[in-house]
């Protein structure tokens, strides 16, 4: 079940990041909060595969160079990475709080 949810989040992130020009948020820098939340969700669901998913915050922001009406932003990329890192840590903590789950899968 969690794997299917992770796949949906991956598809949603891909769709949101390659969709042409999105409306701006009425909240100043509100898009940064959206970046933080969406990549936190990715980190929480995919914390076991964090090493494989780590390139996504870079890749998805870089794809915006090729999408009409979208712009590349290092600040957005940084927010993506912070959200992903927080999500990985939260997922690792939540899953392992009773089991002592290792952050690195050794097997």
UniProtKB/TrEMBL annotation:
Residues 30-92 form the VanZ-like domain. Keywords: Membrane, Transmembrane, Transmembrane helix. Pfam families: VanZ. InterPro entries: VanZ-like. The chain crosses the membrane at residues 40-60, 72-94. This is VanZ-like domain-containing protein. It comes from Thermococcus guaymasensis DSM 11113. The lineage of its organism: Archaea, Methanobacteriati, Methanobacteriota, Thermococci, Thermococcales.
